[in-house]
Write a structure and sequence with these properties.
Elements: H1 2-19, E1 32-34, E2 37-42, E3 48-55, E4 60-63, E5 66-69, E6 77-84, H2 87-96, E7 101-103, E8 109-113, H3 114-119, H4 122-130, E9 139-143, H5 147-150, H6 161-170, H7 179-187, E10 192-204, E11 210-224, E12 227-232, H8 234-243, E13 251-255, E14 262-279, E15 282-298, H9 307-334, H10 342-349, H11 351-357, H12 361-366, E16 370-380, H13 388-399
Parallel strand pairs: 1-7, 2-8, 8-9, 9-10, 15-16
Antiparallel strand pairs: 2-3, 3-6, 4-5, 10-11, 11-12, 13-14, 14-15
Helix pairs in contact: 8-9, 10-11
Organism: Paenibacillus solanacearum
Main location: membrane
Pfam families: Spore_GerAC, Spore_GerAC_N
């Protein structure tokens, strides 16, 4: 009797075990090729060129429990490139030539060439959105020429080229636009801005003086309706960081109000507030920027211990910031590109108004006033109460 009761209790659990699929579809880690970066180009004839970056585990050494780089077999990474009439076909060709199965889980950077960006990003976004293992938080960047050339950069401080590009966005030295941002922008009309890279050739001391490609950050690419239609310069791109409240650990300089000599400040933190206001049938935006700075260096004789002088510096910093932001917004409005998503705030605050504006939003955005205010506080002037220039001037006056 006891055995019969035990059997009836175990029977449901046994049936559940039969329904478990197990690991029938697993792929061993040694059978995976981890994609770390994707470089996309397109010719004028409509042919796609897809380049995928991979680390090479067989060239990574492990010593003392930490992964390192083997110096005996060349670079610990490779780039595989294929061309085809569509992105999926090019990727299928890459998969056919690899001895491992593609894994998209480690891809954090997508670089597109300028030609592809101007022809349209929709095919790329279509592929990324439908690939279940692709991270939509991957950064999107635009190359000034071919994206494939960016993959040839020399990673001096990092192990792989993709890590260099990822750090550019993570450290906020340029726009950190992600695939998710572009996909969300497509729902609101397709306007956004993406980081623009620059590339050159220089002698690499770390590579025994050999000349090699280096990659840096430039301005930003203006994207309207999924297509690149223009550019922002470096100052305008940085103004975009201010608008998004992402400016931090950066340096800004201005001329002293006393003698015109440069004074540099480091930005400790920034905060941006974007507020749409709809009153009496008209819309305008109010953008408020708050920031805290520290004096980094001064070549001026200005007395930084004088509160009135510091107040003048804060006013000049605020005015300079307002001018840059207004100039950037004026450019995006002239191009009819809502690059920083001001329309989203209208949708959140006035959903009924947005329903009326959304079909003609670019034209409305072009003619919508934007009022910018800034309040910059110099938090610390440093342990030196006087600049070296001022100290030398005072010593000279004493001796004379």
């Amino acid at each position: 009797m006891l055995l019969r009761k035990l059997t009836w209790r175990l029977l449901p659990a046994s049936l559940c075990l039969l329904l478990l699929p197990g690991c029938w579809s697993r792929i061993e880690i040694n059978d995976r090729a981890f994609v770390t970066a994707m470089y996309m180009d397109k010719s004028e004839e409509g042919i796609y060129e897809v380049s995928l970056g991979f680390p090479l585990p067989n060239r990574l050494s492990i010593s003392g429990g930490e992964a390192g780089i083997s110096t005996e077999g060349g670079n610990p990474y490779t780039i595989v490139t294929k061309t085809a009439e569509s992105i999926p076909v090019a990727i299928r060709k890459i998969r056919s030539d690899l001895s491992r199965e593609l894994s998209w889980g480690h891809c954090r950077v997508i670089v597109v060439g300028e030609t592809l960006a101007r022809q349209g990003l929709d095919p790329l976004m279509e592929f990324v959105a439908r690939e279940p293992n692709f991270h939509t938080k991957s950064y999107l960047m635009v190359a000034p020429g071919l994206a494939k050339d960016i993959s040839k950069l020399t990673p001096v401080f990092e192990r792989f080229p993709n890590e260099v590009l990822r750090e550019f966005a993570r450290r906020r030295v340029t726009l950190d636009t992600s695939v998710k941002d572009v996909l969300e922008a497509a729902v609101k009309g397709g306007d956004s801005a993406a980081a623009l890279l620059t590339i050159g050739v220089s002698e690499m001391l770390s590579e025994k003086g050999k000349r090699g490609p280096w990659v840096g950050t430039d301005g930003a690419a203006l994207i309207r309706g999924g297509r690149m239609i223009g550019k922002l310069n470096v100052q305008e791109m940085r103004a975009g960081l201010w608008i998004q409240g992402k400016m931090k650990n950066s340096v800004i300089s201005l001329d002293s109000p006393t003698d015109g000599k440069p004074i540099s400040f480091i930005i400790l933190s920034s905060h941006a507030k974007i507020r749409p206001v709809f009153a009496k049938g008209k819309l305008h935006f109010e953008i408020t920027i708050e920031a805290e700075d520290d004096v980094m260096s001064s070549e001026s004789t200005i007395n930084l211990m004088d509160p009135d002088q510091v107040s003048k510096l804060e006013t000049l910093l605020s005015e300079q910031l307002i001018e840059r932001i207004e100039r950037t917004l004026r450019k995006t409005r002239d191009e009819e590109v809502d690059a920083f998503g001001l329309g989203w705030y209208v949708d959140w605050r006035y959903p009924k108004v947005w329903e009326q504006y959304r079909t003609d939003w670019r034209h409305i955005y072009k003619n919508t006033p934007v009022h910018v205010t800034a309040h910059v506080v110099v938090k610390r002037t440093g342990v030196e109460s006087k600049s070296i220039t001022r100290q030398r001037l005072e010593q000279r006056e004493i001796t004379e």
